[in-house]
Amino acid sequence: MQLKQLANISAALAAASCALLGQPAQAGTVLDDWQFNSAILLYNETDRVSAGEAILTARADFGDDKYLNLGLVVDALTGASATGAVSQPYVQSFTRPSGRGSYDVAPGDTPLDDTFHDTRVQLDANWEQPFAQNWRVSGGGHVSKEYDYLSISLNGSVARDFNQKNTTLSLGLALSHDTVSPEGGIASAFAPMLLRSNFDDDGSYQTAFDATRDRAEDTKDTVDLLLGLTQVINRNWLMQFNYSLSMADGYMTDPFKLVSVVNSNGEVQQNLYENRPDKRTKHSLYWQNKLHLSGSYLDASYRYMWDDWELTSHTADLKWRLPVGGGWYAEPQLRYYQQSAAEFYMPFMLQTDPRPQFASADYRIGKMNTYTLGAKFGTKLAAGNELSFRIALYQQNPQNDGVAAPGVLADIDLYEKVTAISAQVSYSF
Prior knowledge:
The chain has helices at residues 3-7, 9-21, 202-211; strands at 34-45, 50-61, 67-82, 92-95, 102-105, 112-132, 135-146, 149-162, 167-180, 186-187, 213-215, 218-234, 237-250, 258-262, 268-273, 279-293, 296-307, 312-325, 328-339, 349-350, 368-380, 386-398, 418-428. It is built from three helices and 23 strands. It has one domain: Porin, CATH 2.40.160. The chain starts with a helix and ends with a strand.
Protein backbone atom coordinates (compact mmCIF):
# COMPACT_ATOMS: atom_id res chain seq x y z
CA MET A 1 0.00 0.00 0.00
CA GLN A 2 1.27 3.43 -0.93
CA LEU A 3 0.02 5.79 1.76
CA LYS A 4 0.54 8.86 -0.37
CA GLN A 5 -1.80 7.46 -3.00
CA LEU A 6 -4.39 6.56 -0.34
CA ALA A 7 -4.24 10.07 1.08
CA ASN A 8 -5.09 11.48 -2.34
CA ILE A 9 -7.98 9.10 -3.12
CA SER A 10 -10.65 11.54 -1.87
CA ALA A 11 -9.35 14.37 -4.02
CA ALA A 12 -9.01 12.11 -7.06
CA LEU A 13 -12.56 10.80 -6.73
CA ALA A 14 -13.87 14.33 -6.28
CA ALA A 15 -12.13 15.50 -9.42
CA ALA A 16 -13.40 12.51 -11.39
CA SER A 17 -16.98 13.04 -10.21
CA CYS A 18 -16.92 16.72 -11.13
CA ALA A 19 -15.49 15.91 -14.54
CA LEU A 20 -18.35 13.48 -15.22
CA LEU A 21 -20.82 16.19 -14.23
CA GLY A 22 -19.11 18.72 -16.47
CA GLN A 23 -18.27 20.96 -13.52
CA PRO A 24 -14.92 22.29 -12.35
CA ALA A 25 -13.40 20.29 -9.50
CA GLN A 26 -13.52 22.01 -6.14
CA ALA A 27 -11.79 20.39 -3.22
CA GLY A 28 -14.02 19.44 -0.33
CA THR A 29 -17.38 19.62 -2.13
CA VAL A 30 -18.12 16.11 -3.40
CA LEU A 31 -16.92 13.63 -0.80
CA ASP A 32 -17.29 15.69 2.36
CA ASP A 33 -20.06 13.34 3.51
CA TRP A 34 -18.13 10.14 2.82
CA GLN A 35 -15.79 8.32 5.17
CA PHE A 36 -13.48 5.58 3.89
CA ASN A 37 -11.62 2.84 5.72
CA SER A 38 -9.01 0.71 3.97
CA ALA A 39 -6.77 -2.10 5.12
CA ILE A 40 -4.27 -4.64 3.84
CA LEU A 41 -3.91 -7.87 5.84
CA LEU A 42 -1.25 -10.56 5.49
CA TYR A 43 -1.63 -13.91 7.27
CA ASN A 44 0.75 -16.84 7.31
CA GLU A 45 0.60 -20.24 9.04
CA THR A 46 3.88 -22.10 9.47
CA ASP A 47 4.16 -24.56 6.54
CA ARG A 48 0.44 -24.23 5.83
CA VAL A 49 -1.97 -21.58 4.57
CA SER A 50 -0.99 -18.06 3.57
CA ALA A 51 -3.49 -15.31 2.83
CA GLY A 52 -3.56 -11.74 1.65
CA GLU A 53 -6.64 -9.54 2.00
CA ALA A 54 -7.55 -6.04 0.83
CA ILE A 55 -10.53 -4.25 2.43
CA LEU A 56 -12.25 -1.01 1.49
CA THR A 57 -15.39 0.27 3.21
CA ALA A 58 -17.26 3.52 2.65
CA ARG A 59 -19.94 5.27 4.69
CA ALA A 60 -21.98 8.12 3.24
CA ASP A 61 -23.96 10.58 5.36
CA PHE A 62 -27.12 11.74 3.56
CA GLY A 63 -28.33 13.85 6.46
CA ASP A 64 -31.19 13.26 8.86
CA ASP A 65 -29.30 10.24 10.24
CA LYS A 66 -29.50 8.40 6.91
CA TYR A 67 -26.40 6.42 5.97
CA LEU A 68 -25.23 4.19 3.15
CA ASN A 69 -22.51 1.63 3.96
CA LEU A 70 -20.56 -0.13 1.21
CA GLY A 71 -17.82 -2.74 1.47
CA LEU A 72 -15.40 -4.54 -0.82
CA VAL A 73 -13.12 -7.40 0.24
CA VAL A 74 -10.69 -9.25 -2.01
CA ASP A 75 -8.57 -12.03 -0.59
CA ALA A 76 -6.29 -14.71 -1.95
CA LEU A 77 -5.34 -17.93 -0.15
CA THR A 78 -2.65 -20.41 -1.01
CA GLY A 79 -0.51 -23.08 0.64
CA ALA A 80 -1.23 -26.44 2.23
CA SER A 81 -4.44 -27.52 3.95
CA ALA A 82 -4.78 -30.51 6.31
CA THR A 83 -6.85 -33.28 4.70
CA GLY A 84 -7.90 -35.00 7.93
CA ALA A 85 -6.01 -38.21 7.10
CA VAL A 86 -3.62 -39.49 9.80
CA SER A 87 0.16 -39.54 9.61
CA GLN A 88 1.97 -42.82 9.08
CA PRO A 89 5.58 -44.01 9.61
CA TYR A 90 5.88 -44.55 5.85
CA VAL A 91 5.26 -42.57 2.64
CA GLN A 92 1.58 -42.13 1.78
CA SER A 93 0.04 -41.32 -1.62
CA PHE A 94 -3.12 -39.28 -2.06
CA THR A 95 -5.35 -38.34 -4.97
CA ARG A 96 -6.34 -34.72 -5.28
CA PRO A 97 -10.05 -34.00 -4.68
CA SER A 98 -10.61 -33.27 -8.37
CA GLY A 99 -9.50 -36.81 -9.21
CA ARG A 100 -6.69 -35.48 -11.39
CA GLY A 101 -3.15 -35.77 -10.08
CA SER A 102 -1.68 -37.11 -6.88
CA TYR A 103 0.88 -36.23 -4.23
CA ASP A 104 3.02 -38.01 -1.64
CA VAL A 105 3.40 -37.30 2.08
CA ALA A 106 6.66 -38.07 3.88
CA PRO A 107 6.77 -40.46 6.87
CA GLY A 108 5.51 -38.85 10.08
CA ASP A 109 4.20 -35.73 8.33
CA THR A 110 0.63 -34.52 8.63
CA PRO A 111 -1.07 -35.13 5.26
CA LEU A 112 -1.47 -31.72 3.61
CA ASP A 113 -2.81 -30.93 0.16
CA ASP A 114 -0.24 -28.38 -1.00
CA THR A 115 -2.24 -27.16 -4.03
CA PHE A 116 -4.79 -25.30 -1.95
CA HIS A 117 -5.44 -21.88 -3.49
CA ASP A 118 -8.43 -19.63 -4.01
CA THR A 119 -9.44 -16.03 -4.60
CA ARG A 120 -12.57 -14.53 -3.10
CA VAL A 121 -14.42 -11.29 -3.83
CA GLN A 122 -17.03 -9.99 -1.38
CA LEU A 123 -19.44 -7.08 -1.81
CA ASP A 124 -21.63 -5.61 0.95
CA ALA A 125 -24.23 -2.84 0.95
CA ASN A 126 -26.41 -1.56 3.77
CA TRP A 127 -28.80 1.36 4.24
CA GLU A 128 -29.82 2.71 7.66
CA GLN A 129 -32.18 5.50 8.70
CA PRO A 130 -34.66 6.57 11.40
CA PHE A 131 -38.09 4.99 11.15
CA ALA A 132 -39.96 6.99 13.76
CA GLN A 133 -39.06 8.78 16.95
CA ASN A 134 -36.49 6.62 18.80
CA TRP A 135 -36.65 3.92 16.10
CA ARG A 136 -34.00 3.02 13.51
CA VAL A 137 -34.07 0.45 10.72
CA SER A 138 -31.45 -0.92 8.35
CA GLY A 139 -31.32 -3.37 5.47
CA GLY A 140 -28.75 -4.68 3.09
CA GLY A 141 -27.23 -7.49 1.10
CA HIS A 142 -24.05 -9.50 0.76
CA VAL A 143 -22.46 -11.42 -2.12
CA SER A 144 -19.27 -13.50 -1.81
CA LYS A 145 -17.79 -15.49 -4.70
CA GLU A 146 -14.80 -17.78 -4.89
CA TYR A 147 -13.82 -20.50 -7.31
CA ASP A 148 -16.15 -23.19 -6.00
CA TYR A 149 -18.38 -21.32 -3.54
CA LEU A 150 -21.09 -18.66 -3.88
CA SER A 151 -22.84 -17.00 -0.93
CA ILE A 152 -25.75 -14.57 -1.20
CA SER A 153 -27.55 -13.04 1.77
CA LEU A 154 -30.06 -10.37 2.77
CA ASN A 155 -30.24 -8.75 6.19
CA GLY A 156 -32.34 -6.29 8.13
CA SER A 157 -32.56 -4.89 11.63
CA VAL A 158 -34.66 -2.63 13.81
CA ALA A 159 -33.57 -0.76 16.95
CA ARG A 160 -35.51 1.13 19.62
CA ASP A 161 -33.99 3.69 22.00
CA PHE A 162 -35.27 4.11 25.56
CA ASN A 163 -34.30 6.01 28.68
CA GLN A 164 -33.17 9.20 26.87
CA LYS A 165 -31.19 7.06 24.38
CA ASN A 166 -29.17 5.41 27.15
CA THR A 167 -30.78 2.04 26.44
CA THR A 168 -31.16 0.44 23.03
CA LEU A 169 -32.94 -2.79 22.10
CA SER A 170 -32.22 -4.24 18.66
CA LEU A 171 -33.39 -7.17 16.56
CA GLY A 172 -31.63 -8.38 13.43
CA LEU A 173 -32.40 -11.05 10.85
CA ALA A 174 -30.26 -12.42 8.01
CA LEU A 175 -31.07 -15.01 5.35
CA SER A 176 -28.32 -16.59 3.28
CA HIS A 177 -28.10 -19.10 0.47
CA ASP A 178 -24.78 -20.80 -0.31
CA THR A 179 -23.84 -22.97 -3.27
CA VAL A 180 -20.78 -25.24 -3.23
CA SER A 181 -19.56 -26.77 -6.51
CA PRO A 182 -16.15 -28.37 -5.88
CA GLU A 183 -13.99 -29.39 -8.80
CA GLY A 184 -14.49 -33.09 -9.38
CA GLY A 185 -17.98 -33.02 -7.83
CA ILE A 186 -19.27 -33.97 -4.40
CA ALA A 187 -18.30 -37.43 -3.16
CA SER A 188 -20.87 -39.80 -1.71
CA ALA A 189 -20.79 -40.17 2.06
CA PHE A 190 -17.74 -42.23 3.08
CA ALA A 191 -16.78 -42.88 -0.55
CA PRO A 192 -13.22 -44.21 -0.76
CA MET A 193 -10.38 -42.08 -2.06
CA LEU A 194 -9.12 -43.96 -5.13
CA LEU A 195 -5.52 -44.15 -6.38
CA ARG A 196 -4.71 -44.18 -10.08
CA SER A 197 -1.93 -46.72 -9.43
CA ASN A 198 -4.54 -49.33 -8.46
CA PHE A 199 -6.10 -49.32 -11.95
CA ASP A 200 -4.87 -50.69 -15.27
CA ASP A 201 -5.67 -47.61 -17.36
CA ASP A 202 -7.06 -44.08 -17.19
CA GLY A 203 -10.48 -45.13 -18.44
CA SER A 204 -11.13 -47.70 -15.74
CA TYR A 205 -9.86 -45.28 -13.08
CA GLN A 206 -12.13 -42.48 -14.30
CA THR A 207 -15.15 -44.79 -14.37
CA ALA A 208 -14.49 -45.86 -10.78
CA PHE A 209 -13.86 -42.26 -9.69
CA ASP A 210 -17.12 -41.05 -11.26
CA ALA A 211 -18.96 -43.80 -9.38
CA THR A 212 -17.81 -42.24 -6.07
CA ARG A 213 -19.34 -38.87 -6.99
CA ASP A 214 -22.90 -38.20 -5.88
CA ARG A 215 -23.62 -34.81 -7.51
CA ALA A 216 -21.90 -31.81 -9.04
CA GLU A 217 -23.01 -29.22 -6.45
CA ASP A 218 -25.18 -28.68 -3.41
CA THR A 219 -26.65 -25.82 -1.37
CA LYS A 220 -27.10 -24.60 2.19
CA ASP A 221 -29.64 -22.15 3.62
CA THR A 222 -29.05 -20.29 6.88
CA VAL A 223 -31.25 -18.11 9.07
CA ASP A 224 -29.49 -15.90 11.62
CA LEU A 225 -31.31 -14.02 14.37
CA LEU A 226 -29.70 -11.47 16.71
CA LEU A 227 -31.28 -9.89 19.79
CA GLY A 228 -29.24 -7.14 21.43
CA LEU A 229 -29.31 -4.81 24.40
CA THR A 230 -26.93 -1.84 24.67
CA GLN A 231 -26.81 0.13 27.92
CA VAL A 232 -24.96 3.30 28.88
CA ILE A 233 -23.94 2.68 32.48
CA ASN A 234 -22.35 6.11 32.96
CA ARG A 235 -20.36 8.60 30.91
CA ASN A 236 -17.33 6.28 30.93
CA TRP A 237 -18.93 2.85 30.61
CA LEU A 238 -20.89 1.24 27.78
CA MET A 239 -22.21 -2.34 28.05
CA GLN A 240 -23.75 -4.66 25.46
CA PHE A 241 -25.52 -8.04 25.63
CA ASN A 242 -26.36 -10.13 22.55
CA TYR A 243 -28.12 -13.42 21.99
CA SER A 244 -27.81 -14.98 18.54
CA LEU A 245 -29.46 -17.98 16.94
CA SER A 246 -28.26 -19.59 13.71
CA MET A 247 -30.13 -22.39 11.93
CA ALA A 248 -28.48 -23.99 8.90
CA ASP A 249 -30.01 -26.58 6.60
CA GLY A 250 -28.23 -28.20 3.68
CA TYR A 251 -24.75 -29.34 2.70
CA MET A 252 -22.25 -28.77 5.52
CA THR A 253 -19.74 -31.53 4.75
CA ASP A 254 -16.30 -30.37 3.65
CA PRO A 255 -15.87 -31.98 0.20
CA PHE A 256 -12.07 -32.04 0.56
CA LYS A 257 -11.71 -33.70 3.97
CA LEU A 258 -10.87 -37.37 4.62
CA VAL A 259 -11.17 -39.83 7.51
CA SER A 260 -8.60 -42.63 7.74
CA VAL A 261 -9.66 -46.20 8.51
CA VAL A 262 -6.90 -47.99 10.45
CA ASN A 263 -6.32 -51.55 11.62
CA SER A 264 -5.47 -52.67 15.16
CA ASN A 265 -1.84 -51.66 14.55
CA GLY A 266 -2.80 -48.12 13.49
CA GLU A 267 -1.98 -48.68 9.83
CA VAL A 268 -4.20 -46.98 7.27
CA GLN A 269 -6.32 -49.40 5.27
CA GLN A 270 -8.46 -46.84 3.48
CA ASN A 271 -9.14 -43.10 3.34
CA LEU A 272 -12.81 -42.12 3.11
CA TYR A 273 -14.49 -38.80 2.36
CA GLU A 274 -16.14 -37.42 5.49
CA ASN A 275 -19.87 -36.97 6.14
CA ARG A 276 -21.51 -34.38 8.40
CA PRO A 277 -25.15 -33.75 9.39
CA ASP A 278 -27.20 -31.56 7.05
CA LYS A 279 -28.69 -29.50 9.89
CA ARG A 280 -27.08 -27.38 12.58
CA THR A 281 -28.53 -25.02 15.19
CA LYS A 282 -26.16 -22.71 17.07
CA HIS A 283 -26.79 -20.42 20.03
CA SER A 284 -24.45 -17.84 21.49
CA LEU A 285 -24.38 -15.28 24.29
CA TYR A 286 -22.11 -12.26 24.04
CA TRP A 287 -21.19 -9.68 26.68
CA GLN A 288 -19.04 -6.64 25.93
CA ASN A 289 -17.84 -3.72 28.06
CA LYS A 290 -16.16 -0.53 26.84
CA LEU A 291 -14.69 1.72 29.49
CA HIS A 292 -12.87 5.05 29.48
CA LEU A 293 -10.14 4.96 32.13
CA SER A 294 -8.15 8.17 32.63
CA GLY A 295 -7.41 8.74 28.96
CA SER A 296 -7.21 5.05 28.05
CA TYR A 297 -9.93 2.78 26.64
CA LEU A 298 -10.61 -0.79 27.74
CA ASP A 299 -12.63 -3.19 25.57
CA ALA A 300 -13.41 -6.55 27.23
CA SER A 301 -15.79 -9.20 25.87
CA TYR A 302 -16.84 -12.80 26.42
CA ARG A 303 -18.79 -15.17 24.19
CA TYR A 304 -20.30 -18.58 24.93
CA MET A 305 -21.52 -20.73 22.03
CA TRP A 306 -23.28 -24.09 21.98
CA ASP A 307 -24.94 -26.13 19.22
CA ASP A 308 -26.72 -29.41 18.51
CA TRP A 309 -23.46 -30.95 17.25
CA GLU A 310 -22.46 -30.88 20.95
CA LEU A 311 -19.72 -28.39 20.20
CA THR A 312 -19.32 -25.65 22.80
CA SER A 313 -16.86 -22.77 22.90
CA HIS A 314 -15.70 -19.95 25.16
CA THR A 315 -14.05 -16.79 23.82
CA ALA A 316 -12.50 -14.05 25.97
CA ASP A 317 -11.07 -10.95 24.30
CA LEU A 318 -9.30 -8.01 25.93
CA LYS A 319 -8.04 -4.82 24.24
CA TRP A 320 -6.62 -1.78 25.99
CA ARG A 321 -5.90 1.41 24.04
CA LEU A 322 -3.21 3.51 25.73
CA PRO A 323 -1.77 6.90 24.69
CA VAL A 324 2.01 6.70 24.18
CA GLY A 325 2.82 10.30 23.22
CA GLY A 326 3.36 12.21 20.02
CA GLY A 327 -0.26 11.66 19.00
CA TRP A 328 0.22 7.88 18.89
CA TYR A 329 -1.61 5.16 20.79
CA ALA A 330 -0.86 1.48 21.48
CA GLU A 331 -3.55 -1.16 21.81
CA PRO A 332 -2.35 -4.54 23.10
CA GLN A 333 -4.76 -7.45 22.68
CA LEU A 334 -5.12 -10.86 24.30
CA ARG A 335 -7.71 -13.32 23.02
CA TYR A 336 -8.32 -16.83 24.34
CA TYR A 337 -10.57 -19.43 22.74
CA GLN A 338 -11.49 -22.93 23.89
CA GLN A 339 -13.85 -25.45 22.31
CA SER A 340 -15.03 -29.02 22.84
CA ALA A 341 -15.23 -31.55 20.02
CA ALA A 342 -18.33 -32.12 17.89
CA GLU A 343 -20.09 -35.37 18.69
CA PHE A 344 -19.08 -36.96 15.36
CA TYR A 345 -15.45 -35.81 15.40
CA MET A 346 -12.98 -38.68 15.32
CA PRO A 347 -9.29 -38.46 14.37
CA PHE A 348 -9.59 -41.89 12.66
CA MET A 349 -11.91 -44.88 12.37
CA LEU A 350 -11.05 -48.37 13.57
CA GLN A 351 -11.51 -51.04 10.92
CA THR A 352 -13.28 -53.29 13.42
CA ASP A 353 -15.87 -50.69 14.48
CA PRO A 354 -19.25 -50.34 12.72
CA ARG A 355 -19.47 -47.43 10.29
CA PRO A 356 -21.05 -44.37 12.01
CA GLN A 357 -23.72 -42.26 10.37
CA PHE A 358 -21.50 -39.15 10.54
CA ALA A 359 -17.77 -38.70 10.97
CA SER A 360 -15.17 -36.01 10.40
CA ALA A 361 -11.47 -35.83 11.24
CA ASP A 362 -11.31 -32.07 10.60
CA TYR A 363 -9.35 -30.69 13.57
CA ARG A 364 -11.30 -27.43 13.32
CA ILE A 365 -14.31 -29.14 14.93
CA GLY A 366 -12.18 -31.12 17.39
CA LYS A 367 -11.20 -30.26 20.93
CA MET A 368 -8.75 -27.37 21.03
CA ASN A 369 -7.72 -24.11 22.59
CA THR A 370 -6.16 -21.11 20.91
CA TYR A 371 -4.72 -17.78 21.92
CA THR A 372 -3.93 -14.58 20.06
CA LEU A 373 -1.40 -12.06 21.33
CA GLY A 374 -1.22 -8.85 19.36
CA ALA A 375 -0.80 -5.10 19.38
CA LYS A 376 -2.09 -2.22 17.32
CA PHE A 377 -0.34 1.14 16.92
CA GLY A 378 -2.07 4.16 15.44
CA THR A 379 -2.10 7.93 15.10
CA LYS A 380 -4.30 10.74 13.86
CA LEU A 381 -3.09 12.55 10.74
CA ALA A 382 -4.09 15.79 9.06
CA ALA A 383 -7.81 16.43 8.50
CA GLY A 384 -8.71 13.70 11.00
CA ASN A 385 -7.35 10.82 8.93
CA GLU A 386 -6.01 7.83 10.88
CA LEU A 387 -3.15 5.44 10.19
CA SER A 388 -2.66 2.23 12.16
CA PHE A 389 -0.57 -0.94 12.15
CA ARG A 390 -1.35 -4.26 13.79
CA ILE A 391 0.66 -7.43 14.30
CA ALA A 392 -0.51 -10.60 16.05
CA LEU A 393 0.70 -14.08 16.91
CA TYR A 394 -1.86 -16.88 16.80
CA GLN A 395 -1.36 -20.31 18.39
CA GLN A 396 -3.82 -23.18 17.85
CA ASN A 397 -3.53 -26.25 20.07
CA PRO A 398 -5.66 -29.25 18.99
CA GLN A 399 -6.13 -31.75 21.80
CA ASN A 400 -6.92 -35.43 22.25
CA ASP A 401 -10.48 -35.93 23.48
CA GLY A 402 -9.67 -39.26 25.14
CA VAL A 403 -9.11 -41.38 22.01
CA ALA A 404 -6.56 -44.19 22.40
CA ALA A 405 -4.07 -44.36 19.51
CA PRO A 406 -3.34 -47.98 18.49
CA GLY A 407 -0.01 -49.36 17.29
CA VAL A 408 2.11 -47.05 15.16
CA LEU A 409 -0.17 -44.08 15.85
CA ALA A 410 0.99 -43.99 19.47
CA ASP A 411 4.35 -42.59 18.30
CA ILE A 412 2.88 -40.00 15.89
CA ASP A 413 1.69 -36.50 16.69
CA LEU A 414 -1.97 -36.66 15.65
CA TYR A 415 -2.76 -33.22 17.09
CA GLU A 416 -0.18 -30.96 15.53
CA LYS A 417 -0.07 -27.36 16.71
CA VAL A 418 -0.64 -24.55 14.22
CA THR A 419 1.19 -21.24 14.59
CA ALA A 420 0.39 -18.19 12.50
CA ILE A 421 1.40 -14.54 12.33
CA SER A 422 -0.65 -11.73 10.84
CA ALA A 423 0.15 -8.13 9.98
CA GLN A 424 -2.25 -5.36 8.99
CA VAL A 425 -1.98 -1.74 7.93
CA SER A 426 -5.12 0.41 7.96
CA TYR A 427 -5.88 3.91 6.74
CA SER A 428 -9.08 5.86 7.39
CA PHE A 429 -9.86 9.05 5.52
